[in-house]
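Section 3.1 - Work completed
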Amino acid sequence: MRLEDLQAFLKLAEHGNLHRAADALGVTQSALSKTLARLEAGSGLRLVERSGHGVALTPAGMSLQAHAQRVLLAVGDLQGDLAEQRQARAGAVRVGVLPYLMSTLLSPLLARFVAQRPLAQFSIETHLSARLLALLQRAEVDLVLAARPDRVPRDLDWRPLGPLDLRVTLRAGHPRRAQLHALADLTAERWALPASSLYLRHWLDERFTEAGLPPPRVAVESTASPSAFAELLRQSDLLGVMPAQLLGQPEGHGLVALPGDALLWRRELGVFWRAAGYLSPVCADFRDAVVQGV
């Protein structure tokens, strides 16, 4: 039995008249008669009794009416549920992410997520943490994966994603590598560093100031990710600061970290969103997938 036949039969049962039921359905009386004949042939039973006043349901017709109502209600529920699931699986998600986290966290997570949500669409912005959080506060992205600042802005909510360790880094063949053990040993070295407005640079400058040392001697500075200096460090005797985990990956080939807690910078990573902002179902699901995936 076809769903449209059951719908037509319910309309016939409601009106008790072929002509009025056909008008309500927007079909001809002949077409409705063919539908009724198809149902009776399929059931092997007479479903209505015809009279000069219209049609009346037989016992078999009343049984079909009751079951058809339940079937069509169930189909309506199913369609509504599937529509909600389509809405949850569709939609655009704007993500801001630290360049380092693009390959180590976001890309593998996206590969799994889009396989399950083929209708979801993502746009990705890669910047350093301060810029990313500013974009989020201006509602230019929906979610941000970044280092937690010392004070999280009150209009943002967040969940932790674990630590990010950054270490003083140099090429393995640096001529003074064996003599560099403490901050005081680094005062004569030249550096490739993030710009002075960025969190990481603040940390390094504060470490030197707290130790009563002059600030690092900067040869190159940039608003790019620290990992963007990898090739520069491989080809020079400059020092830099890079994620410790990156040194074990192809990008860190030929580079090493100086040992010691004094030369370690640890920041808490987090996923951030606007506390009072709207997150679409797919966006909220992706945020939860990020938290669960670490």
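Second construct:
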Amino acid sequence: MSTAIVLAAFGSRHKNAMASLTHITERVRAAYPDIPVRVAYTSKTIRGHMKKAGEAVDSVSAALDKLLSEGVTHVAVQSLHLIPGTEFHELLGLANELMLREDGFSRVEVGFPLVAGEAGVEQVADAVLAIAEQGKGENDAVLFMGHGTKHDGNVYYEALHRAFQQRDPSVHMGAMEAEPGIDAIIERFTRDGVKKAHLLPFLFGAGWHAARDMVGDSETSWKTRLEKAGIQCEAVLKGAGEYDHLVDIWLSHLHDALARMNRC
């Protein structure tokens, strides 16, 4: 039995986003020093941009094909996504396909993304609240910016917002490409008399979305929109993969995936 780990990240071309990937990769290698660890990007768009820039990176499928050619028989693919959306479910399909192939792996297990199931919502909410409390004034609001998705997995953003509110009504979750969007958030903050908001990305890495869509100078950035509404903004540009107590959750999912694999 030959085992390997593949870390499956969405990917980013932004230099600030690399801090998250570097940090979690170092944590995984330290936790499993005897198991080879490979990194792969699930976003075809990001891989294309990086190839043009002379920085070729593997897709998950390509990384797995290389491991097969090296004689690896068992693989744990750890999702570095935030919620179980389209790309996580594609990993599940790929794992199934590569186990059914005659020349495929003996076993492929996929580790859950950061938030998984109702218990996962509560666990992540507790960890995120610890982040939200850092440097927050008594009457300040904290706003996390998630990506959002048309996939049914978007319910996890809504569930996290409810979990935040139950613990601390000053902490909020918003989404760029789903609801609640910035319009609803401004309406909520105006109604509640919020004068200052701390903006943090709920993204794996603090890349282009954080730099452009959250705190950019454009008319449509969240920071610009909030300031026009009379709300002072302070931003913390750190991705989820830079916080150890969130990385601990990803590592627990990887541990579970390896345990499932080793039982078979």
